[in-house]
Design goal:
mainly alpha
């Protein structure tokens, strides 16, 4: 069970935030190109930083808590998955906060940010028109 610990934590992170896509309508998975671009931008500097840190001996990963699958013989698979899962969870949370905030305060800052992000076009148009929310 211990070699699965890192993967289980990542799975729990996804399991906790995934419902934000469908329950609140975060619309992260519905925009795969935007998600892929965001992941590449978020992952690249951290992977480089990680590889440099590993190469210099600043840190390493316990084989006790990982599967033992090393990418390029350097970085465990779970570490690469970390750089995918955590940004997805952050995006889901951010988009959910924008949507909920825009619903609660349709003329507020979160509604404007959501409109600028293209997340909630209908709420943005209602806020601009001053239409009351039902």
């Amino acid at each position: 069970m211990e070699p699965l610990r890192y993967l289980l934590v990542l799975g729990a992170c996804l399991a906790i935030t995934a419902p934000l896509e469908w329950v609140i309508g975060a619309r992260v998975y519905r925009r795969p190109r935007r998600l892929a671009l965001t992941l590449v931008i978020a992952m690249t500097p951290f992977i480089v930083w990680d590889l440099v840190g590993i190469g210099r001996g600043h840190w390493d990963f316990s084989s006790r808590y990982t599967l033992g699958i090393d990418l390029g013989g350097v970085m465990p698979l779970e570490e690469l998955l970390f750089f995918v899962v955590i940004p997805i969870c952050a995006l889901l949370t951010h988009q959910a906060v924008l949507r909920l905030g825009a619903r609660v305060w349709p003329r507020g800052r979160l509604a404007r940010e959501a409109a600028e992000a293209g997340a909630i076009a209908s709420l943005a148009s209602e806020a601009e028109q001053g239409a009351p929310r039902a």
